[in-house]
Design goal:
Layout (H helix, E strand, L loop, with lengths): L18 E6 L2 E6 L4 H7 L6 E2 L6 E2 L12 E4 L2 E4 L10 E4 L21 E10 L3 H12 L4 E4 L20 H4 L5 H12 L5 E4 L3 E5 L5 E5 L3 E12 L3 E3 L12 E3 H10 L7 E5 L3 H12 L3 E7 L8 H10 L3 E3 L1 E7 L6 E6 L12 E4 L2 E4 L3 E3 L2 H9 L3 E3 L9 H19 L8 H11 L17 E5 L9 H5 L5 E2 L10 E2 L13 H5 L5 E5 L8 E6 L11 E5 L5 E11 L8 E6 L2 H4 L4 E2 L21 E3 L4 E2 H9 L5 H8 L11 H11 L21 H4 L14
Parallel strand pairs: 1-7, 8-9, 8-13, 9-10, 13-24, 15-22, 16-17, 16-22, 17-18
Antiparallel strand pairs: 1-2, 3-4, 5-6, 5-7, 11-12, 12-13, 14-23, 19-20, 20-21, 25-28, 26-27, 28-29, 29-32, 30-31, 30-33, 31-32, 34-35
Helix pairs in contact: 2-4, 2-9, 5-6, 6-7, 9-10
C-alpha cells in the first residue's frame, strides 16, 4: 500500500492522528483525520482526480486554494473541490467524467430557508494573513469593532506554510522567527481583543453597489456585511505559464506544493523541477529538500535569480542545479508529468537551438511571480465605499513587509474613524519601504586574514533587509545599521577587550543560514567549522564522511563529521561540526546533501507552441486565441464568446494575464485591447445560499 505521508519533519510537528477508511473508484484507502480529499488522494499515490468534460484530459490539483476547479471530484455523489473539502470516514470518491450530474432531490421535500444574515461593522477586513492580522491588532487595541474573514480553517495566510525564519527587522516584524510561529503569535494576539470578530472558512464573494459585501460564511450560508471602511488584505495569486504540457497533472504552483507538504504533511512528489528563481521558487525548493524530495533543478529565464542570494546559496550548497538564462520548453508525459525539457535562452529570451535537455521529474512547480488579489479593492472604489489595501493586495513584497503595511493601514483606518489622534510616525513609512525593497548590491566574498582563536564567517553578501545576527550576539560584535537594515552586517574582532566566545548563536539564528563558525583553538592546521543544518538529525551522524562546499556549492573537501549538536534556544536548527584543512576553512559555507540527478535518454520532441493550454478550465489553446487575434479581434469578450476562454470556474483569474501576453506577442498595444468585465462573484456558489438555504439542507446525503 502506498503511503506518501510525512511522519517526521525537521521543523514541523507531526501529530499521530488516527487513520480511517475511504474509497476511491471503489478501492479501499486510508485517510488521516483532518486531511482534505486532495491530500488524502496524494497520500495514497493518486495524482489524477478526474477527466475534463471537453476532451477527457486528465485533471489533478492546480491552485489548492479553492479558486479553480481542476481538482473537482464526486464525493458521495456531489461535485466538490477536493482541495477544500475534508475527507470523512466511509466517503466514496469518484472521478468526474463528463459533466457531473447532481443526485435527484425530492421536489415535495420542504426546504429550510432562513433570512440572510445582515450586519454592520466599523471595519471589515478581508484576509487573515500577516497584513490583515496586523491591522486587526492595531484596531483591536483601540477598541474598534471589526470583522475579520478568511477562507481557510485557521488564521495566518501563507505564514502557516513557511518553515523558514523571516528576514527584516527583529524589532519591527519578528525577524529571526519562523513563519509558522509568527502566524501563531499574531493569531493569539488578535484573539485577545473582544471587538475583533473572526469568521474562518468564510469567503468574500463580491462588493455590491449598495456598499455591502457578500460573504460565504463558514462555507455553508450567505451573509451581507455593511462596513464603514473596508480593508482588503487578500494576498496574491500565482501567475501561470503557457507551454506544451502545462495542463498535465503534476504541473502546479508553489502555493499548492507548500500546502500539501507543509500544511497537510504529504509528500506529493519524488522528483521536483522548479520554474522561477524568485524567493517563492527558491524557498519552495528548500521546503522540498526538508521533506525528503529530490529537486532536479531550478531554471530562471533571467541572467540571475530575482530572490535573495542567501536563498539561492542554500539550494546550491545542498546540490540543487540552478540554471539561469534557461527556460522550460515542455512538460512531457502521457497522463501526468514524466519529464521536462529545458533550453538555454539568448539575450532576447529566445531558446537557443541545440541546447535542449530533458530531465526526469514527476512534478513541475511554477513560481514565476504573483498578482495582487485586489478585485474587492477596485470594486469598492468604484462604488464609493471607503477602502484600503494592505500586504500583497496593495503591492507584492515579502511577508515581513505585509506585517508592517498592515500595522500602518490599521492606524490609518483608526485615524479616519477618529479613535487615533496622533500622527503616524514617519519612520514607520520608511521602515515599510525598506522592508518592501528588492535585493540590492551584491559584494564579493571577503575573509579575515586571522587564523587563530574562534570567529564567525558571514557569507551574507547581498543587501537585503535583515538584522537578527546583530540582535543575538551577546557581545555585540556583529552590527547592522539600525537606520537601514539592508546594509551588510559588520563584524568587530573585539569590543571592550572581548572577542568571539564561540557561543554559536549567530550561526543558529541567521535566517539565511549564512554564518559559519571557524575554530582554530584545538588544531590550527585542521580547524573545526560549525555549519547550520535544518534537516532531520538522524540523517547525519558523527563519523560520517561528507562533502563540504563553498557559497556556490563547489566542493572544497571531503570531511568527517566530529559532532552533531543543538544549543539552547536553537529553534530546530542543529549544528554540524567538521574538521577541514585550514586552506579552505573560511570558505566552507555548507554541506552537500543531494547527488546530481542524471538526464534522461529521452530526446526532446518538438511541439507546436500553439498547443499550449491558455484557459485550463475550458481547455482553450494558444493557437485558438492567436488565430482570432490575427483576424483582428481586440475585444477579450469576443474571444470569450467564441472560444469560452475565461468562462470556467476560476473566473478567468489564471488565463487573463496569459491572453494579454498573447496580444503582446502579436504586437498589439495594450491601448487597443478591450478587457472583459471582472466576474461579479469571486468564486462559484450554489444559488440556494443566496436565498437563505444553508449548505447541507438540500439533501441528507450532501457532504457538509
Amino acid at each position: 500500500m502506498i503511503d506518501n505521508r510525512l511522519y517526521k519533519h525537521p521543523i514541523l510537528p507531526v501529530e499521530d492522528k488516527p487513520l480511517f477508511t475511504f474509497y476511491f473508484r471503489e478501492q479501499e484507502l486510508k485517510a488521516r483525520e483532518g486531511e482534505t480529499i486532495a491530500s488524502a488522494l496524494f497520500a495514497n499515490g493518486i495524482r489524477i482526480f478526474s477527466f475534463h468534460h471537453k476532451d477527457g484530459a486528465p485533471q489533478g490539483i492546480f491552485c489548492a486554494n479553492g479558486q479553480c476547479a481542476q481538482c473537482l471530484v464526486l464525493a458521495d455523489g456531489f461535485p466538490v473541490k477536493s482541495c477544500m473539502e475534508l475527507i470523512k470516514p466511509g466517503m466514496k470518491i469518484e472521478p468526474v467524467v463528463g459533466l457531473p450530474h447532481l443526485p435527484p432531490v425530492d421536489p415535495e421535500k420542504p426546504m429550510d430557508f432562513k433570512p440572510v444574515e445582515e450586519l454592520e461593522v466599523s471595519v471589515l477586513i478581508i484576509g487573515g494573513g500577516p497584513a490583515g492580522l496586523s491591522a486587526a491588532i492595531e484596531l483591536g487595541q483601540r477598541g474598534v469593532d471589526c470583522l475579520l474573514v478568511d477562507d481557510k480553517h485557521r488564521l495566518g495566510g501563507k505564514l502557516v506554510l513557511q518553515t523558514h525564519r523571516f528576514f527584516g527587522s527583529v524589532e519591527a516584524v519578528y525577524a529571526g522567527t519562523r513563519g509558522i510561529d509568527i502566524a501563531t503569535r499574531l493569531e493569539n494576539e488578535v484573539r485577545q481583543y473582544p471587538g475583533v470578530t473572526i469568521w474562518l472558512q468564510s469567503t468574500a464573494l463580491a462588493v455590491f453597489s449598495d456598499k455591502k459585501v457578500g460573504i460565504l460564511k463558514e462555507n455553508r450560508k450567505y451573509a451581507l456585511v455593511k462596513p464603514k471602511i473596508l480593508l482588503v488584505a487578500a494576498g496574491a495569486r500565482e501567475k501561470s505559464l503557457a507551454f506544451p504540457g502545462n495542463d498535465l497533472p503534476g504541473v502546479y504552483g508553489a502555493g499548492a506544493f507548500q500546502t500539501l507538504v507543509n500544511r497537510d504533511l504529504v509528500k506529493p512528489t519524488e522528483e521536483l523541477f522548479i520554474v522561477g528563481g524568485g524567493n517563492v521558487g527558491l524557498i519552495a525548493g528548500y521546503h522540498a529538500l526538508q521533506a525528503g524530495i529530490k529537486v532536479v533543478a531550478l531554471v530562471e529565464v533571467m541572467p540571475e535569480v530575482g530572490g535573495y542570494k542567501v536563498h539561492k546559496d542554500k539550494l546550491a550548497r545542498l546540490g540543487v542545479p540552478i540554471l539561469t538564462s534557461h527556460t522550460i520548453l515542455s512538460a512531457n508525459g502521457k497522463d501526468s508529468v514524466e519529464s521536462v525539457t529545458i533550453a538555454r535562452v539568448d539575450d532576447k529570451f529566445h531558446p537557443v537551438p541545440g541546447t535542449e535537455r530533458t530531465l526526469r521529474c514527476d512534478t513541475v512547480l511554477i513560481a514565476v511571480g504573483l498578482d495582487p488579489v485586489n478585485e474587492f479593492y477596485l470594486k469598492a472604489r468604484e462604488f464609493g465605499l471607503p477602502v484600503y489595501a494592505a500586504g500583497d493586495a496593495e503591492e507584492i513584497a515579502e511577508a515581513s513587509a505585509a506585517i508592517f503595511s498592515g500595522k500602518i493601514r490599521g492606524l490609518e483606518i483608526a485615524r479616519e474613524l477618529g479613535v487615533y489622534q496622533d500622527e503616524i510616525p514617519q519612520d514607520w513609512y520608511r521602515t515599510a519601504e525598506i522592508l518592501k525593497s528588492r535585493p540590492g548590491r551584491t559584494y564579493p566574498e571577503y575573509f579575515l586574514e586571522k587564523e587563530e582563536g574562534v570567529f564567525p564567517v558571514i557569507h551574507c553578501l547581498q543587501e537585503i533587509p535583515c538584522d537578527p545576527c546583530s540582535a543575538v550576539c551577546p557581545r555585540k560584535l556583529i552590527e547592522v545599521d539600525r537606520t537601514d537594515v539592508r546594509k551588510l552586517p559588520v563584524y568587530y574582532e573585539e569590543k571592550e577587550g572581548k572577542g568571539c566566545s564561540g557561543c554559536e548563536r549567530c550561526v543558529v539564528f541567521c535566517p539565511g543560514l549564512a554564518i559559519t563558525l571557524v575554530d582554530y583553538r584545538r588544531n590550527p592546521e585542521f580547524p573545526e567549522v560549525t555549519i547550520p543544518f535544518e534537516f532531520l538529525k538522524e540523517i547525519i551522524n558523527p563519523g560520517d564522511e561528507i562533502s563540504v562546499v563553498d557559497i556556490a556549492g563547489q566542493e572544497l573537501a571531503r570531511s568527517r563529521v566530529t559532532s552533531v549538536k543543538s544549543i539552547k534556544g536553537n529553534d530546530r536548527t542543529i549544528l554540524v561540526k567538521v574538521q577541514v584543512p585550514k586552506a579552505v576553512a573560511k570558505k566552507v559555507s555548507g554541506l552537500k546533501l543531494q547527488p546530481e540527478i542524471p538526464e534522461t535518454a529521452e530526446k526532446y520532441l518538438e511541439r507546436i507552441s500553439d498547443e499550449a493550454i491558455i484557459c485550463r478550465c475550458e481547455r482553450v489553446t494558444a493557437g485558438e486565441i492567436r488565430k482570432l487575434i490575427r483576424e483582428g479581434i481586440r475585444d477579450i469578450n469576443e474571444i470569450k464568446t467564441i472560444t469560452r476562454a475565461g468562462m470556467g470556474p476560476c473566473g478567468a483569474k489564471t488565463c487573463t494575464p496569459l491572453v494579454h501576453r498573447l496580444f503582446r506577442e502579436e504586437g498589439v498595444p495594450e491601448s487597443e485591447i478591450v478587457d472583459q468585465p471582472k466576474r461579479p462573484l469571486f468564486i462559484e456558489v450554489p444559488l440556494g445560499l443566496f436565498a437563505g438555504l444553508e449548505k447541507g439542507k438540500e439533501s441528507e446525503h450532501e457532504p457538509r
